[in-house]
What does this fold into?
Amino acid sequence: MQRRLIECVPNISEGRDRAKIDAIANVVTTVEGVRLLDVDPGKATNRTVITFVGEPEPVLEAAYRLIAKAQELIDMRGHSGEHPRFGATDVCPLVPVSGVSMEECAEYARQLGERVGGELGIPVYLYEAAASEEKR
It folds into this structure.
């Protein structure tokens, strides 16, 4: 049977403070079954792209923990950078890798969004396949 894997590629609104970047990225490694693949900070954009992979449920947990840690450590009131942004975690796409369809990833994104909104009080904007409105 093919292993079910999804990739998560959150972009956080911090690209200059390595201690904050590492603290946020390292929460991913606290979830069993998730592998942190890359942490790519950009100083000019003041944004970091983090990439990790695993089975869907552990990836959703790792994404939630990352979003919570970013909310805790990143103060958007003084943020500046060349790239427009929505929040501490700017985007958090879920990408099918193997054994998972895009439709399933969209449903996982909705589940993650509901948890982030409900438990962390962060407004969530779903887009592309997970969008609730066609225009998104």
In short: The chain has three helices and six strands. The chain has a mean pLDDT of 94. The two ends are 35 Å apart (CA to CA). Residues 102-120 form the longest helix (19 residues).
